[in-house]
Amino acid sequence: MAVSQTNLAWATLLDIGPSEHGGALRLHDRLALALRTTIRDGRLTEGAAVPPSRALAEELGCSRWVVTEAYGQLIAEGFLSARVGSATRVSWSPDASPTRPRARHVPAQTAIRYDLAPGLPDLRAFPRRRWAEAVRAVTGSAVHYDLGLPDPAGHAELRTTVAQYLRRSRGADADTTSVSVCAGVTDGLVRTCRALHARGITDLAMEHPGWRRLRDAATSTGLRVHPVPVDDDGLRVEDLVRTPARVVVVGAAHQFPTGTVLSPRRRARLVRWARETDGFVIEDDYDAEFRYDRHPVAVIQGMEPSRVFLLGSVSKTLSPALGLGWLVAPTAMAQALRSANPVAAAPPVLDQLALATFIERGWYDAHLRAARRRFRSRRDLLIRTLAAQIPQGRVAGTAAGLHVLLHLPDDTDTRGSVRAAAATGLRLTDLDDYRMHRSAERALVLGYGNISDTDIASAVALLREALSSPSTSGPPGTAQSGDDGL
Ligand SMILES: Cc1ncc(COP(=O)(O)O)c(C=O)c1O
Fold this sequence. Notes:
The chain contains 15 helices and 16 strands. The chain has helices at 13-16, 27-40, 53-60, 64-77, 128-141, 156-170, 185-198, 212-219, 237-240, 264-277, 334-340, 349-360, 363-389, 414-423, 453-468; strands spanning 80-81, 89-90, 114-115, 179-182, 203-208, 224-231, 234-235, 247-250, 280-284, 308-313, 325-328, 394-396, 403-408, 426-427, 429-430, 442-447.
């Protein structure tokens, strides 16, 4: 199904099905139950079209009969209505029910109708049922000493599982001892910087533009940060060599925010630089699983494990709320890492074991396969819509990840446009927000992880309006930007 009809992640619908029925329900009953729950919860609202039965069957990998049975059941119950020649639609709203659904904490961001800021994966597609199953399984099966004092480097089972995963999917050189578990890339970077600082390193280079949180993480450890520009081939290693830094942080697979992929020549040049300077590369592999034009390129860490720290997390693949990530360190740095981070704690052990189970049972791979398909088609839709609606723009950085760059003519007031868009409920990010100073280049960073397919046309229409009549009412520099830059 190229375009889903609502915000709902249809492919995970059967994941939502309650497991209190112990799996005793037949597939069409489970689907009916999941749809009913979704409508009752207000996630599918009155008037929303459900996908054609053939498309949903394809998406769920079941027969069309299963879907038509489930739809038929819900039509009979009044949750859906069907008219010949038109889509089947939701015909029920929670307001009509005397028992309203549980009032949930509503986050402030609900004022945002459309989120084109980068940062989040598709939160609606979080694999709730399988994650819950993994948590339940490990809560039952963890041996009692797993519940004692946790290993600060992380539980050995997850370290082993992550090492295997990184070897097979990212071409990394990793084993149980070189992997430690941390709370994410940011946490991994702090730990790494502390270890390097303890070894007398004072200067670190970072891509510019870049994600400010990583710069803050590095400076919080006492390191001086040197920005190094990025061009169409990624980090400019020829500029890196002119800095006093012997360590560099690089998003080789998909630089944030420009979206460039480090070219093969630059990768080789970077490794040579690390050898020649007796230096280190810190590879931020934050969204590399999502590569669309070819298989994901292997990590640089696999080329030179003694000089590369590899950082990754599930923030872009599952959810940043899990706070689970990993750090692969050169063997010679393992002791330095431990002693420089004496009180660093790994994430909760049961969560670590749940992630290990989730990966071991093949659910992580299955989730990534489905997510990759969904993001690719959404990215294509966004690019097509931008080309049709904003012909003055040029889209770049599309090969991987969950965001693209929209280059705009030099006279565009991107800041004013971000403000104007915010007033209409559209969240945008100006490329300048990721720079240490304003630049002449005008561009927006557009994330498509957490917006539904059906919202893209409306979001781009609002973007076009914002670009043609930017609000200039706020003082300069107060744009409500979507993320924090370098
Ligand atoms: C450049 C970059 N690196 C890493 C991450 C992930 O960070 P963490 O794992 O700390 O959530 C992000 C998330 O948005 C990012 O933009």
